[in-house]
Amino acid sequence: MPPSDFTEDLAAALATAGLAVDACYQCRKCSNGCPLVFAMDLPPDQVIRLALAGREADLLGCRTIWVCSSCETCTTRCPNGIDIAGVMDWLKEQAVARGLAVPEPEVRDFHRAFLSAVKWGGGRLSEPLVMALYALKGGRWLKKLRRSAAAGEVATALELLRRRRLRLAPPKRLTGAGEVAAILRRW
Ligand code: SF4
Ligand code: SF4
User: Fold this and answer.
1) pLDDT for res 5
2) Residues of the chain with CATH 1.10.1060.10
């Protein structure tokens, strides 16, 4: 991969966002503890390494930032206090803000469905709503209906209902719903 011109810009942007990465000494404790590293194209320590090298294009196009579930195991394990999970989130935001192609569109759609459901729920999450929004995004549900692949998901939903793991009733309104709405308006 050719070097990029973004070294200083990327490091500075991360530091400005409270996500300085320059203390990394590549111990790999982050990658060794990551539960999803098997599905990533770059282990977390390499994400930090590439951030230090300013390889912005490589980072914004990688699958890793979308596979990351923000569990924060890496952040907790880092001996230098680097917020690796925060770096992953920041990179996702940059990729979306720039309209770049997302290698894992399902993850992006789920994030959007989740935030829309929280917004419409006044700060609380309605599980059926997030499921419905996710299913509708990108015509996903219609495609499944055409392939007769929706039956399994309906059966799962019914089973979750039976076990009381899924609430159909809308969530109660939050006391601080106005504050949450103000935060979400920025999104
Ligand atoms: S755990 Fe921290 S210091 Fe070690 S490689 Fe990961 S980011 Fe770098
Ligand atoms: S936050 Fe992401 S990168 Fe860090 S351990 Fe969890 S899944 Fe892995």
Assistant:
1) 46
2) 7-97
pLDDT band at 8 (very low <50, low <70, confident <90, very high): low
Task: Give pLDDT, residue 3.
Answer: 41
What secondary structure does DSSP assign to 89-110, as a single string? HHHHHHHHHTTPPPS-HHHHHH
Tell me which residue has its CA closest to atom 2 in ligand 1: 78
CA distances (Å), origin 176, targets 122, 127, 184: 9, 20, 13
Tell me which of 88, 104, 111 to substitute to probe ligand 2's pocket, judged by most ligand atoms within 8 Å of the beta carbon: 88
Q: What is the pLDDT of residues 64-90, one digit of tens each?
A: 999 999 999 999 999 999 999 999 999
Residue to substitute in 34, 41, 62, 111 for testing ligand 2 pocket (most ligand atoms within 8 angstroms of CB): 34
Fold classification of 7-97 is Fumarate Reductase Iron-sulfur Protein; Chain B, domain 2 (1.10.1060)
Mean pLDDT lowest for which of 4-8, 34-38, 44-48, 100-104? 4-8
